[in-house]
Design a protein that fits this description.
48% of the residues lie in helices and 3% in strands. The chain is an all-alpha fold. The chain has 2 domains: 41-145, Cytochrome c-like domain (Cytochrome Bc1 Complex, Chain D, domain 2, Orthogonal Bundle), CATH 1.10.760; 152-271, Orthogonal Bundle (Cytochrome Bc1 Complex, Chain D, domain 2). Helix 9 packs across helix 10 (222-231). The longest helix has 33 residues, at 3-35. The relative contact order is 0.10.
């Protein structure tokens, strides 16, 4: 190849690359309104975005994998934590951890109630953006990783593929694959409280609780208490624990819609083994 041919090749390659880049860019912009659910951007969502920038949240946190990487990625935070939890956490983060023990440095920002509400709406909008699997392994607040599950269909598929397993084994799959995943908030190791209490010993605690006068729920046995905790978590509030506010449990609701009755049965069977 002589110099003239090399120049032609370089110019043609550059022009072709630029054309491909331009086409891909235009196609991306064509899809943005659908991928981002632009029609759901309300004034509250926009105000919440302003709160995000006002308090420089991105200086520590990330969205869609972009940010400071000092604190967890919050892309799917509203799917991992309920609104009641997020409201209480933003009011006073120090109530949720021991700074000396956990070495977390989330500052109290003194946000107004309106700012908290709008910020949650913004983060909820973010969580529903079709980010096409990016980041590929979203970091949970607990520091662990969770399998991406767009809908309960993924859970159904996993359970179907393991239909030869016993209910307890299937329950463990649901524990890790539900939306939101149970292991996003709960540990099964003794003493390892996270956003929710550890589930180690839950069967023994349930047995003692349902027979005590302090119990305010309707369950009569261990399995009933675990099922109640999943389906109607505010039926009984543990006094003094930072897992509720104003009589409302931080436990997300709606599992009866995202899980089948069989999957809930399997999850109950799995959790009942933690004595």
């Amino acid at each position: 190849m002589n110099n003239r041919q090399a120049r032609i090749f370089a110019i043609a390659s550059t022009a072709l690359s630029a054309l491909i880049f331009l086409v891909l860019t235009l196609d991306s912009h064509r899809q943005f309104p659908t991928l981002t659910n632009a029609d759901t951007i309300t004034p509250e969502v926009t105000l919440g975005k302003d709160v995000w920038h006002k308090y420089n949240c991105i200086n520590c946190h990330t969205l869609f994998g972009e940010g400071a990487y000092y604190a967890p990625d919050l892309t799917k935070i509203t799917q991992h934590r309920g609104e009641a939890y997020l409201q209480a956490y933003m009011r006073d983060p120090s109530q949720f951890y021991d700074e000396q023990k956990h070495r977390r440095l989330m500052p109290k920002q003194d946000l107004s109630e309106a700012e908290i509400s709008n910020l949650i709406k913004f983060l909820d909008w973010v969580s529903k953006v079709d980010n096409q699997g990016w980041p590929p392994r979203p970091i949970l607040v607990t520091g662990s990783f969770n399998l991406p599950t767009k809908t309960s269909t993924a859970v159904t598929s996993l359970t179907t593929e393991t239909s030869k397993l016993d209910p307890i084994a299937q329950g463990e799959i649901v524990f890790r694959s539900a939306t939101p995943a149970c292991n996003a908030c709960h540990s099964t190791a003794p003493g390892a409280d996270m956003a929710g209490p550890t589930l180690a010993g839950i069967a023994s605690r349930a047995k003692q609780l349902v027979g005590s006068p302090q119990y305010t729920g309707a369950a009569k046995d261990i399995e009933g208490y675990i099922r109640e905790s999943i389906m109607t978590p505010s039926a009984h509030i543990v006094p003094g624990a930072m897992y509720s506010a104003a009589g409302t449990s931080f436990m997300p609701i709606g599992y009866e819609q995202s899980l089948t009755s069989a999957q809930i049965d399997h999850l109950v069977a799995y959790l009942a083994t933690f004595k």
